[in-house]
Amino acid sequence: MTYEVHLHKSALKTLKKMDGTLRRCILNKIEHLKRDPRPYDCKKLSGSDMYRVRSGNFRILYTIEDKKLIVLIVAIRDRKEAYKTRQSVA
């Protein structure tokens, strides 16, 4: 059972700005979310329905719709900024 991955407009914009190596690492992590949206290294963020996975110094913030088999990538942010502005993302 594979999930469909959708990227929010802001996440796509962030991804396009990254250099090739970093972009490939993040895309690889996103590709794994298709098969397993809750990998062992994911964390559910308190106070919301969002999850996060780490990819180097970046955090991929996403939600899961199990009934529709969809993973929505809400944001891709540097670890220093990922949690400060989480309320504005959700």
Automatic annotation (TrEMBL):
Q: Which SUPFAM superfamilies match?
A: RelE-like
Task: Give UniProt keywords alphabetically.
Answer: Toxin-antitoxin system
**Is this entry keyworded Nucleotide-binding?**
no
Instruction: Kindly give the Pfam families that the UniProt entry links to this protein.
Output: ParE_toxin
Looking up PANTHER family in the UniProt record yields:
PTHR38813, TOXIN RELE1-RELATED
The name this protein carries in UniProt is Uncharacterized protein
